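Hey, resending since the last one bounced:
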Amino acid sequence: MSAGRLLSVLLLLQSRGRMSARAIAEELGVSVRTAYRDVERLQGAGVPVCAEPGRGGGYRLLDGYRTRLTGMTEGEARALLFAGLPDAAADLGLAAEVSAARLKLLAALPAGAREEAARTATVFHVDAPGWYREPEQTPYLPLFVDATLTQRVVEARYRRWRAPQEVSRRLRPYGLVLKSGVWYVVAATESTTATATATATATATAATYRVAQVLDATLSDERFDRPGDFELGAYWASYLADFRARRYTGTATIRLSPQGRRRLPDNVAPEVVRAVDATATAVGGDGWVEAVVPTESTTHACGELLRLGADVEVVAPAGLRRAMADTVGALARAYGVTGRA
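The structure tokens again:
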């Protein structure tokens, strides 16, 4: 029997009022028989739980009874930040702690505020992952949570985009970031640099790792000190700014039909949409516009712009225009089209 579960039953009755055994069981993830036993144990401990038989009945606390046993455990306090993000809490292995912390918070509120909080919870829902994408599998996320909170080194094998693709790293996790449904760990990595005297010095550099790309990870007993001046939010803002600066290495001049411009936000990055809005000039009298947009590479720009079909034309550079023409030609040949009908 779990004393924590008995407290949860008590707080449920205090915050919800009358509840059936089945409702208690569903809330706590136990069997109905277990819910009955838990209620009986509360009654045996002197808690005034009243049973109301019949349709619409259930269990409730005697009018006026309130418990003050609402102290949070360390794990529940950690989980409190994710009270409005149940999916994120589940990813981190904190679903049970979030549920318990939420119950304790509700139980500590006066009746009016408790009812308002419960009502508010029914009209807001956060769904972090983007459309058209399955949630990533992150089996090592709870390990990184533990490593971050206890400041322990992680031995990890990681898959990256450049060669060699599989690398081994000794990571000192400073924090975790959830971005558009994707988890990242910000960690210091140790690299060895040879000095003029042929000795080796270990230097730590913070880097960002996608948790889903971790192939294997082991939590070591080695401890590390998180730098006192490291601020996760400031690091992430700087990382995003640097990413955007490195992402776009060139520009292209394109022409868009009115429909192409309407479809633009659903098919390209926001930076490209803003560039079109800032530089668009009319060409001809049919609503087409010409604009200068940022590009990552010829291959990436070609794939992105082809989503717009005949509603876009690349004017420059010549390499991108040729890549578009080559791709369209290959498509035509694949479908047996050799010329205009």
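The longest helix spans residues 318-334.

Sorry for the duplicate.
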